[in-house]
Design brief:
Mean pLDDT: 80
Distance between the termini: 44 Å
Length: about 160
């Protein structure tokens, strides 16, 4: 079972890497935009890509404001792949119930989600795992007790912004 999971993860990384690094254009149905901290690529509309970028930037901004002593800059870029619908996204996910996921890496991190569906479901796993990345990047995983690391991530997975 572990071998099967590892092979799926490797295939997923390769597929996401190929999609994220492909030459994209509006004619092909794939767009690429850059926000302050994220590179987004996807077959979702430009409006949806910008909405995802805004949501991720808002999350990151609020988190950094709450913990101003922590260092949040990272040499590892985060690429975000946004699929226009669940049908397209389902081809790339390995966990049936996942509405989105965060895949950390040594050279690049990937966030993958769909623009379709319930926003809370789409972002909860991403916010949870991105919280781990931010705290681990600043403090180091070994310096945070596991119960605290997991508790912070559980808390911030419920992040939402109302009225901008």
């Amino acid at each position: 079972m572990q071998f099967h999971s590892s092979v799926l993860k490797i295939l997923l990384v390769c597929a996401v890497f190929a999609v994220a690094n492909a030459s994209v254009s509006a004619q092909s149905g794939w767009l690429r935009i850059q926000s302050k901290n994220f590179q987004l690529v996807g077959n979702a509309s430009e409006e949806n890509l910008r909405r995802v970028a805004t949501k991720l930037e808002q999350f990151r901004h609020v988190f950094t404001q709450l913990f101003p002593q922590m260092k949040f800059n990272s040499p590892i870029p985060t690429r975000v792949v946004v699929f226009k619908d669940k049908k397209t996204f389902d081809q790339f996910k390995t966990i049936e119930w996942a509405a989105g996921f965060f895949l950390p890496g040594e050279d690049v991190n990937y966030i993958v989600l769909t623009a379709e569906g319930n926003e809370t479901e789409n972002y909860s796993t991403i916010f949870h795992e991105y919280t781990h990345f931010l705290t681990d990047n600043s403090l180091g995983r070994a310096k945070i007790p596991p119960w605290l690391n997991e508790g912070i991530a559980e808390y911030y997975e419920q992040f939402s912004i109302e009225n901008d």
